[in-house]
Amino acid sequence: MSTESRTLTVKIKRYNPETGVEPAWEEFQTSADPMDRVLDVLQKVKWDQDETIGFRRSCAHGVCGSDALRINGVNGLACRILVKNLKSDVITLEPILGLPVIKDLIVDMKPFFDHYKSVMPFLINDDPPPTTERLQSPTERARFDESTKCILCACCTTACPPFWGDQKYVGPAAIVNAHRFIFDSRDRGAAQRLDILNDAEGVWRCRTVFNCTSACPRDIQVTQTIQEVKRTLLTGEVDNEVVVASAME
Description:
Layout: E1 6-14, E2 24-32, H1 38-48, E3 68-71, E4 74-77, E5 90-94, E6 101-103, E7 106-107, H2 110-118, H3 138-142, H4 161-165, H5 172-182, H6 190-197, H7 211-215, H8 222-235, E8 237-238, E9 241-242
Parallel strand pairs: 1-5
Antiparallel strand pairs: 1-2, 3-4, 3-5, 6-7, 8-9
Helix pairs in contact: 2-5, 5-6, 5-8
């Protein structure tokens, strides 16, 4: 692998609502080292050439999920994609799809978080509190470990064709976070969450495209978690424990 710097053409989809002008592509030329990340490249363009470029970033280490973009047509975190792994010297950067664009690469995340909050992504347990923690076995913890990895970057939801066509669909990320509590042995709110998801705008809107799984920067098997929620709705059981009298009533 070459260690020499590369000259890159960075194409950014620009949009400023204050001008009333439709979104348009703007090109910049810059150099980058192989171990630079796309975020480094984007910041260099902003700092050296056009400080008005709008984008989000925070931790820059793949933990916060703030810098989710469409990079060369594919959803990803700008802080995790290295220049050395880019096949082309042209990088196209545009906002993730399905959410209103505020400016340039910045989207309005409120609809996404509204869907997230709608599935009650918190522990529900009205049992008398124990004298210690609410304990569970390693096997019980492993049952929902996959879905605890979500960082709410919206990569999966905004890679989903059904979501592009219908923003009322709760989307993959909301279902993943519902899954995290539905299968938590300490939780008592599974029936309520399943009732929310048993809807035309819930899990049944999923068409098993697998875009969500491919887009997830944390390698969550998103499609699998959605299928597990569907299966639970059809059987009315979570791991052989009845949680709803009839999931399809």
